[in-house]
Amino acid sequence: MASGSTIDALGQFELHPIFGSFGEALRFSQAPLFMVISSAVVLAFLYIGMKPKAVVPGRLQAAAEVSYDFVHGLAVDTIGEEKGTAFFPFIFALFFFILVGNYIGLLPFSYTFTSHIAVTFALAITVFILCILTSLRFQGMNFFKHFMPEGAPMALSPILVPIEILSYISRPVSLSIRLFANMVAGHVLLEVFASFTIMLAGLGVVGDVLAVTPLVLNIALTALELLVGLLQAYVFAILTCIYLREAVDH
Amino acid sequence: MRLTPRFLLSAAAPLAALPGRAVAEGMPQLHFKDPLLQGQVVWGALIFIIFYLLLSRSALPRVASVLKARETRIQSDLDLARRARKDADQAQKELFEAREKASEDANATIQNIRETTKETIRVQAEETAARLEAEIKNAESQIALSRNNALSSINEIASSTAMTLAERLVGTADQQAVTAAIEHARAAGADHVS
């Protein structure tokens, strides 16, 4: 919000309790509310879309089927036919939770829960733990061999093993920061340009004319954010698929 | 685009600081002590688990069943069409074979009739030829018989005629002389004739 002559670009990320004392007591802020809304939107999309069960689908059903096929293809092509199908609901949940979260956050008066590092890191650490459990399940103790690259001289192991472990551990960090930073950057830019518009409009006739520029830029930025929102959800999902593939067959 | 929070902060700080106030509290996302921030992680986990369970148990199988039903239906329709085409092909083949066979039968019948007829004609011709041969032989033998008969009665007729002639001319007739003469004449005549 722009108050007076200052730009508070980060205030939009603040959490406030909602539903009065209920939110206060249960620590229920806008973020969980929009998580519920996002989940409900996805579920409604699938339930309402698939309601006709038509052989020749209508528009909404076709959209629901396309989204199913898209994520299913992503999971099966990357992880493999059998295990890909097993992990598919998780990938689907992850992809659409992030995608709809990103998109709903673009609406006025809404909240982008993917702009919180705590949320994205929780998602990333879930993927990370799932990958480790999957690795142990399918490879057993062989899993730990990957921290020593094959064919490398034994003498280098004191250097190589920590590096490999570090690069493995950095996966959830990069996964979560990538999504978080992209969403924050986009929303900060939107806020800043919106504030410019308001501040310029306060300068009189010349300002009114000049205020159009950040407004136009904001429209372009919104389009860019739509692209970024999809791309980040996709990147998150595909990286999860790649990590899971490594976990199941290596 | 990889932006770290620190980079973002350093980028956002001058912007925010430009008109006056600095970013006093920093990023709200990094206030990990905030109970609401902790709460959103717990709520998020809960919501995500419910979301996942609803998707994996109910919503996605529903989509899958529709897709599966469509695939099955298309497959069965395709099978049906394929079978129909196979039947049609079979029927066409049978028809073709039947026509081929009928044509062959007709050809064989024609050939048969032609040969039978030819044979009949040949047999008839042979019979006719044999009959004609026999008739010719018969006729020839009759002619020969008649000729011989004629030739044998010539002496008689000639001698009686000669006797009569001689009697009328001479008054008497020597039987032996006449016969000799006739024999003589006949031999000359036979020479002449043959």
UniProtKB/TrEMBL annotation, chain A:
<keyword id="KW-0375">Hydrogen ion transport</keyword>
<dbReference type="InterPro" id="IPR045083">
    <property type="entry name" value="ATP_synth_F0_asu_bact/mt"/>
</dbReference>
<comment type="function">
    <text>Key component of the proton channel; it plays a direct role in the translocation of protons across the membrane.</text>
</comment>
<feature type="transmembrane region" description="Helical">
    <location>
        <begin position="215"/>
        <end position="244"/>
    </location>
</feature>
<dbReference type="InterPro" id="IPR035908">
    <property type="entry name" value="F0_ATP_A_sf"/>
</dbReference>
<comment type="similarity">
    <text>Belongs to the ATPase A chain family.</text>
</comment>
<feature type="transmembrane region" description="Helical">
    <location>
        <begin position="31"/>
        <end position="50"/>
    </location>
</feature>
<feature type="transmembrane region" description="Helical">
    <location>
        <begin position="87"/>
        <end position="111"/>
    </location>
</feature>
<dbReference type="Pfam" id="PF00119">
    <property type="entry name" value="ATP-synt_A"/>
</dbReference>
<keyword id="KW-0813">Transport</keyword>
<protein>
    <recommendedName>
        <fullName>ATP synthase subunit a</fullName>
    </recommendedName>
</protein>
<keyword id="KW-0066">ATP synthesis</keyword>
<keyword id="KW-0812">Transmembrane</keyword>
<keyword id="KW-0138">CF(0)</keyword>
<keyword id="KW-0406">Ion transport</keyword>
<keyword id="KW-1003">Cell membrane</keyword>
<feature type="transmembrane region" description="Helical">
    <location>
        <begin position="117"/>
        <end position="138"/>
    </location>
</feature>
<dbReference type="InterPro" id="IPR023011">
    <property type="entry name" value="ATP_synth_F0_asu_AS"/>
</dbReference>
<feature type="transmembrane region" description="Helical">
    <location>
        <begin position="179"/>
        <end position="203"/>
    </location>
</feature>
<keyword id="KW-1133">Transmembrane helix</keyword>
<keyword id="KW-0472">Membrane</keyword>
<dbReference type="InterPro" id="IPR000568">
    <property type="entry name" value="ATP_synth_F0_asu"/>
</dbReference>
Automatic annotation (TrEMBL), chain B:
<feature type="signal peptide">
    <location>
        <begin position="1"/>
        <end position="24"/>
    </location>
</feature>
<protein>
    <recommendedName>
        <fullName>ATP synthase subunit b</fullName>
    </recommendedName>
</protein>
<keyword id="KW-0138">CF(0)</keyword>
<comment type="function">
    <text>Component of the F(0) channel, it forms part of the peripheral stalk, linking F(1) to F(0). The b'-subunit is a diverged and duplicated form of b found in plants and photosynthetic bacteria.</text>
</comment>
<keyword id="KW-1003">Cell membrane</keyword>
<keyword id="KW-0406">Ion transport</keyword>
<feature type="transmembrane region" description="Helical">
    <location>
        <begin position="40"/>
        <end position="60"/>
    </location>
</feature>
<keyword id="KW-0813">Transport</keyword>
<dbReference type="Pfam" id="PF00430">
    <property type="entry name" value="ATP-synt_B"/>
</dbReference>
<feature type="coiled-coil region">
    <location>
        <begin position="74"/>
        <end position="149"/>
    </location>
</feature>
<keyword id="KW-0812">Transmembrane</keyword>
<keyword id="KW-0175">Coiled coil</keyword>
<comment type="similarity">
    <text>Belongs to the ATPase B chain family.</text>
</comment>
<keyword id="KW-1133">Transmembrane helix</keyword>
<keyword id="KW-0732">Signal</keyword>
<dbReference type="InterPro" id="IPR002146">
    <property type="entry name" value="ATP_synth_b/b'su_bac/chlpt"/>
</dbReference>
<comment type="subunit">
    <text>F-type ATPases have 2 components, F(1) - the catalytic core - and F(0) - the membrane proton channel. F(1) has five subunits: alpha(3), beta(3), gamma(1), delta(1), epsilon(1). F(0) has three main subunits: a(1), b(2) and c(10-14). The alpha and beta chains form an alternating ring which encloses part of the gamma chain. F(1) is attached to F(0) by a central stalk formed by the gamma and epsilon chains, while a peripheral stalk is formed by the delta and b chains.</text>
</comment>
<dbReference type="InterPro" id="IPR050059">
    <property type="entry name" value="ATP_synthase_B_chain"/>
</dbReference>
<keyword id="KW-0066">ATP synthesis</keyword>
<comment type="function">
    <text>F(1)F(0) ATP synthase produces ATP from ADP in the presence of a proton or sodium gradient. F-type ATPases consist of two structural domains, F(1) containing the extramembraneous catalytic core and F(0) containing the membrane proton channel, linked together by a central stalk and a peripheral stalk. During catalysis, ATP synthesis in the catalytic domain of F(1) is coupled via a rotary mechanism of the central stalk subunits to proton translocation.</text>
</comment>
<keyword id="KW-0472">Membrane</keyword>
<keyword id="KW-0375">Hydrogen ion transport</keyword>
